[in-house]
Amino acid sequence: MKEVTKEYTNGEVTIVWKNALCQHSANCVQGLPEVFNSRANPWIKPESASTEEIMEQVKKCPNGALSFYLNAEKK
Questions:
Q1: Alpha carbon distance 38, 10 (integer Å)
Q2: Which of 3, 16, 42, 51 could be a cystine partner for 12, CB 3.0 to 4.6 Å?
Q3: How many domains in the chain?
């Protein structure tokens, strides 16, 4: 499998997804379905929830496929 890293932002927080680490536990889809929808394209829509909700859900990713950074801190 080709390793792909994609980033999705709502302007405040950026979600980083690394496909090679994803074990499809579905924690993200079940926990915050308005943001994570595996049937949609793009499958991550960070504008659909608050920055705080996104950060809390991403922290629950069991294998590190999802991570995030605050855009203000990256500058």
A1: 18
A2: 51
A3: 1
Q: For residue range 2-31, what is the model confidence (pLDDT) as tens digits?
A: 899 999 999 999 999 999 999 999 999 999
Going by pLDDT thresholds of 50, 70 and 90, the confidence category of residue 75 is low
Which of the four pLDDT bands, split at 50, 70 and 90, describes residue 1? low
Structure tokens given for 11: 């302007």
The whole domain housing 33 covers 5-13+21-74
Q: Where are the beta strands (DSSP E) in the chain?
A: 5-9, 13-18, 66-70
